[in-house]
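Hi R.,

Here's the input for the calcium ion complex you asked about:
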Amino acid sequence: MCIRSLVWNPVPIVLFVSMSLLVVACGGGGGGGDNPPGTIQLAETSFDVREGSVINILVARSGGSSGVASVDFATADGTAVGGADYTAANGTLTWPDGVSGNRTISIPITDDNAAEFTESFTVTLSNVSGATLGANSSATVKIIDNDVTVLSAFGSITALNSATVNGIRYDTNASNVLVNGQPAVVSDLRLGQVVRLGGEVNFSVALGSADEIQYNASVIGPVEDIDGTARRLLVMGQTVLIGVDTVFDPSIDPVTLNGLTLGATTQISGFLNANGDIMATRIEPDTTSTGAQLIGTVTELDLANMLFTINQLTVDYSNATLIDLPMGMPVNGLLVIVRGSLVSGILVVDEIANIINSSATPGERVHLGGIITRFASATDFDLNGFPITTDTSTGYVNGVAGDLQANVEITLDGEVNAGGDTALAREVTFGRPDFDRTTLTFDFSNFTNISLDGLAVVTVIQDADFSIEVTADADVINDVLVSQIGDTVSFDLNVSRIYNAVVRMPLLNQIDVGDNALANVTLRNFDQMQMTVNLGGVSILRGEGLMIGDLTVTVSGVSTLDFGDIAPIGNANIDISGVSQATLNMAVGSTLAGSVTTGVGTGVSQLFYYGTDINLNVTTDALSIVTRLGDTQP
Ligand SMILES: [Ca+2]
Ligand SMILES: [Ca+2]
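And here is the predicted structure with calcium ion in place:
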């Protein structure tokens, strides 16, 4: 089991790893004795089961086997109802004299065709005879629906190539995308962006599809203060706090707050907390936005002069289009998005829109991640500014109702009420949904190669000295196990967290990104006579400032290699397969050889290249595509 800090913790720690490391281990103890009657209890007390399957619950007699023993069991309805959602059961389990070990309670789960919330029932042991009843006398079984439900989701993108939001992976092949109010495409989306998404989900497999994805930055404006120690920024009058899973755009060098520039326009995505601060999920330099943008709460409204403030920023709305505002005017306490331009330190806005009114449709199912911004009681609080209620049917994961308080991060599955002004939470998960653990491995077997696996944002930079830096906060120390075996350094971590890792090494002859990776890797400034790139999994590899003589490339899985913006490559041999693509900038008169093939699934494999007088010797199959983008780029 993994217990995580529930409250945002901005205290920074940089795990700096050279070549001597701490290995953490844990162990257990045991006992013995004569042969007593033993203890009877459930092997586990919490089960998640999909509709249409059978749950087998083990009951164990342990610590002795003397004499005949028995125990009664019975199911009891919670939000799941016997007969409709599962087959109610009761009976007696027995162990003969001298026999210990497991007995099984098997309960079929109904497969209906209705889209439902997660429901639960309990299995309870009673009337133990001939042994002692252990502490695990009751279990909760949660039924995860396997029917497709339409919903609206809100949360940060934790994986790309499709978009993973709140633990659900959404197919994006048919998504309409809006970025900061403007029409955009799926490839404009970035890790860590907080998005609103409409689509369909099958919760039993955590897969869905998104019809619509909207991203609005929390703030686009100049950086006014950088506090690297407190991990805090001031951006256009707004306090921005950097957390454990804040994603830094790979163009930020170094990949810390020190890589930002005072006065430069910066785009921040994140969640507001109860103080109105922005808990950043993503930071990137912004060289393309022509205006400023901010999401925040109206205060100090001055109707006569048509001014209000959002934290330390004064907003002038005298020339603004007002969208969805109550009675057509701003009011104190209203959460709004404003767009405009900074004039002498005042944000003169063209447009003010009510965020809350536009976010909820009466009766719709919602899957919302974020931070509790107002807390009155466990049945009355706001998540991201939106009012939430709970009732006796509400289930809790990784915590209890008493753990709810301001600034706690939760994810909830619920439904908007008929009035469209609150949502009833049917299940509250503290933190973000659990993912499997994975390992991010750096393999320095010959000090010229690097091997990556797992989920991370990794920047690999040419540097005379070897080092690895992983930026993480204090509460991660309980959640990451660093170990070294030979030349391999591993970070065993929870993949729901995204790590910013920087690797510095003098030479890079080969990089392997494994088939299980969900990695976003940038190679920067290497000058190599020869380089081999093996890119797999669902990964992205970009090159910046690279000079490569001969390049050998294998791209597989659902991966993207972008070497289109580097110095011309001497010669290249490629093998692109799966649903992958590569972009190369080839030298004048160079050879580009190999194959492009498309695997099973949606999409095709593609090779894009810049080149002049290229000796092209690339084979393709029926689906794959080779596209020349233009002449060799200087
Ligand atoms: Ca079903
Ligand atoms: Ca169902």
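One thing worth noting: The domain at 39-144 is CATH 2.60.40.2030 (Immunoglobulin-like).

Cheers,
M.
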